[in-house]
């Protein structure tokens, strides 16, 4: 199966089996804690919230290769976060496929905090800067918004 036709998985926390949950969290930790050298807690308590969606694509090895989560915010918006792609899958378009899925399945206002170097990429997907650059865990970020 090509990556273009791979099945997008979209689950609530309670629907994840233990192996998949492990693999999703491992991917995020490998990227955000190890690769980006951010020795801060990756597990923030929001993954098990009742309406948090965990969305991913598997690589050719049948393990998660790209992942993100969507949080339901109190103001009715949805926050996209923890967008991560394994090094061996970067440039494959998987993250863009995941975001296209979110755009198609999540009506209303989408918000995210983009790492600054990714602002042009998010802009190409219809996001607009909605605030000033700030540092999160020592990495420059820019708040962005998209209306679906």
Structural overview:
By secondary structure, the chain is α+β, with helices and mostly antiparallel strands. It has a single domain, classed as Aminopeptidase, CATH 3.40.630.30. It is 24% helix and 33% strand. The chain starts with 7 loop residues before the first strand and ends with a strand.
Rg from Cα: 15 Å
Please provide the ordered H/E string of secondary-structure elements. Answer: EHEEEHEHEEE
- Characterize the overall form: globular
For the biggest sheet, the summary is: 8 strands, mixed
* SS-derived structural category: alpha+beta
Give me the CATH architecture, please.
Answer: 3-Layer(aba) Sandwich
CATH fold descriptor:
Aminopeptidase
End-to-end C-alpha gap: 30 Å
Helix content: 10-25%
Quote the average pLDDT: 93
Number of helical elements: 3
Uncertain spans, ≥5 residues at pLDDT below 50?
none
CATH C-level class:
Alpha Beta
Q: Which percent band covers the strand fraction? A: 25-35%
Number of strands: 8
**CATH homology-level superfamily:** Gcn5-related N-acetyltransferase (GNAT)
Supply the number of structural domains. 1
Describe how the helices and strands are arranged.
Layout: E1 8-12, H1 18-35, E2 53-58, E3 64-72, E4 78-85, H2 94-105, E5 109-115, H3 119-124, E6 128-129, E7 134-136, E8 139-147
Parallel strand pairs: 4-5
Antiparallel strand pairs: 1-2, 2-3, 3-4, 5-8, 6-8, 7-8
